[in-house]
Amino acid sequence: METISELWKIAAVRQAVISVLVVLITVIFWIIIRAISRSYQKKKSVDEKTRAASSLRSVIYDAIKVSVFVLLVLTILQINGINVTSLIAGVGVASAVVGLALQDFFKDIIMGVHILMDDFYQIGDLVKYGEEEGLVESFNLRTTKIRSIRTGDIITLCNRNISDIAKSSAEVYIHQPLPYELSVGKANELMERIAEKVKECEGITECTSLGSNSFDASSVDYLLKVVCEKPEIKLGCRRRALLVIKQTLEEERIDIPFEQLDVHMRG
Hints:
Layout: H1 2-8, H2 11-42, H3 46-50, H4 56-79, H5 84-101, H6 103-118, E1 126-129, E2 132-139, E3 143-148, E4 154-158, E5 165-167, E6 171-178, H7 184-199, E7 204-215, E8 220-228, H8 234-251
Antiparallel strand pairs: 1-2, 1-5, 2-3, 3-4, 6-8, 7-8
Helix pairs in contact: 2-4
């Protein structure tokens, strides 16, 4: 006992023992947190597990992990006589300088948190970026990856560009020009029949003729609304609908109008 008392009086030994105890307590605390997290995940469905890496729960888990590690390091430094206050002040100045250089990086992080908090989109959703539409393959706090439904290419976007992304619906609008020579009654009846045929196509749940949309230079523009079973099959549904339209117009011997130019020449 006297030997232990003598050793305890040595500052280095005392600091080492306290440091080890702090590490052990932290490890036990972290094991409990991880067990709670895994228990919570098991209660969720399989679909939710596939999105765990990009969910708000995962972000909170990572944040706690980093916070625990940082607090552990600072506590051990304080125990061993290192002035943590001055260290934090120095780190704060350095962080301000680095923050200016990494503005875009932090914008991505902030927008990534907004995506998770507002449930802007999820993995598997169809989104539109510019002229490209694609399925969300994965996303994290910095980037979003989209697979184009047209080419299959993977597009990686920084989360700070989230304002340029729109979540797509399962609806397709098809503009169909018809000649002015066709009466209004005949044109409407024709578009209704086309809508009924398109509705029978694979992957299409609904098709509605919305009537005339505009009067163009050489034709009247009629509009069809096509609703697909899933947003990601829109291109295929549109192609099948166009095929039905072309076949129906051929059966009715109606030519699809196109722009023409009349040239008058003087002798």
